[in-house]
Amino acid sequence: MVDPQSVAAIIREVAEAEILPRFGHLSAGQIREKKPGQLVTEADTEAERVLSLRLTGLLPGSKVVGEEGVDADPALLGALEQSDPVWIIDPVDGTGNFAKANPRFAVIIALVVDKITRAGWIYDPVAGRMVVAEQGSGAWLGGDRLSVLAPAPLEKMTGSVKRSAHLVSKVAKVGRKGSAAHDYIDLVTGVLHFAHFARLMPWDHAAGVLIHAEAGGYSSLLNHKPYQPIPCKAGLLLAPSEGSWRSLKVLVE
């Protein structure tokens, strides 16, 4: 494996060099629509390129599955079906926010070995927050060990969901603000109780699911199967405990 702090240092350095200088300074030529409603910027492509080089250099023999690389060549996803180490990279999660100079964006990195997420990093460059988790070692923000919020009655729970019609009258507050990375940070820093995601791409969720579990949370696909770091159309629900997960599940299906 690798030293988590060495990976964290690389993420910070690439964010400082490739992402933050472009934040709030993008020209029209540095933003394009790769699919209807899906933006990509020069920060996404350059950060992924540099992260790929530096992370594979840190772990010789490893491969990369990056959001922008897969957009160009979907066959790259096949690396996740193999046993070799794979870096999963989302260079700028929340690109729509980034392009609008909204600070709710982040870098997400996961290290998968033998189809299992072994470590995850989520970095909020604007606030300088780095959340890190290794399998079996807890989730950390600097020297502080992170924990999910305690289970609460439904009417006191807050969450992140895209479709909230069934939840609005049952819980305290729901919403979504354009960055899965920040939802995961919020889940382990006392802001959110739960989150539901319908479109599961590995660069959005591999690191976050591990971080949430290492902070004591409970998650599962809505079909009751465990999450795996591969593309999936089954919904994912994260909650403070299995009991609260079951209470929420009937409202998000």
From TrEMBL:
Mg(2+) 1 binds at E67, D204. Keywords: Hydrolase, Magnesium, Metal-binding. Its cofactor is Mg(2+). It comes from the Bacteria. Mg(2+) 2 binds at D90, D93. Pfam families: Inositol_P. One of its GO terms (biological process) is inositol metabolic process. Gene3D superfamilies: 3.40.190.80, Fructose-1,6-Bisphosphatase, subunit A, domain 1. SUPFAM superfamilies: Carbohydrate phosphatase (SSF56655). The keyword Transmembrane helix does not apply. One of its GO terms (molecular function) is inositol monophosphate 1-phosphatase activity. Belongs to the inositol monophosphatase superfamily. This is Inositol-1-monophosphatase. It comes from Paramagnetospirillum marisnigri.
